[in-house]
């Protein structure tokens, strides 16, 4: 009953690599419809946490529950993706030689199989979904351009759009602002806030200006566990967080 409104629940998660404890009792919850930001110095365990949620890494101990009762530690990556957990890695991986709109089409559920079926790809349902996604990521004006010709920022937004095309219940986004200009970074924050209106999102990010723009609950990881959680102001005023960041 405690978990009714909890989409993602991690408790006491432990992961070791050859004796090195990358996660040491990590506990974290994300409410349905919530967006949160995960910060922390290099090696804090942020990537390992994402790997555990997506089934890439199996924890040695602890609970990882989705929608209150689905035990993610027992599922493989494909099953977890099928549940509606989408992950965006740091580097954009769009189909460079396809147009922007065809990238979205290819990402649609089952799109790969039915792409050959031109009848389906021109159907009203497919068109409507593509239009909706292009509007959300604000790339409608470049829809017929090849993805390879987009700016770095636009490629990142397109890849987020490809995830949205699959109607995810949870989006995991890894350092979306990395390598972006200040203007693109600001636009990315606006985009994620728009997406968060009807999606649950976990954002891992180093750029504090960007995290401030997101204006969401921030959790700072250190040595594989939560060091502090709260607003960005609360977390950045936390003595232990200051020590961890200045002590490097
Ligand atoms: P972050 O993403 O916060 O920088 P990571 O989750 O990548 O941190 O890494 C946490 C720690 O676990 C690091 O010290 C890293 O070297 C170690 N680690 C991560 N993955 C592996 C692996 N596959 N094998 C060995 N050590 C790993």
UniProtKB/TrEMBL annotation:
Start and end residues of each ABC transporter domain: 8-248
InterPro entries tied to this protein: AAA+_ATPase (IPR003593), ABC_AA/LPS_Transport (IPR051120), ABC_transporter-like_ATP-bd (IPR003439), ABC_transptr_urea_ATP-bd_UrtD (IPR017781), BCA_ABC_TP_C (IPR032823), P-loop_NTPase (IPR027417)
Keyword tRNA-binding recorded: no
Molecular function (Gene Ontology), one example: ATP binding
Coiled-coil region(s): none
Pfam families: ABC_tran, BCA_ABC_TP_C
Keyword list, A-Z: ATP-binding, Nucleotide-binding, Transport
Name the UniProt record assigns to this protein: Urea transport system ATP-binding protein
Organism per entry: Labrys wisconsinensis
Taxonomy of the source species: Bacteria, Pseudomonadati, Pseudomonadota, Alphaproteobacteria, Hyphomicrobiales
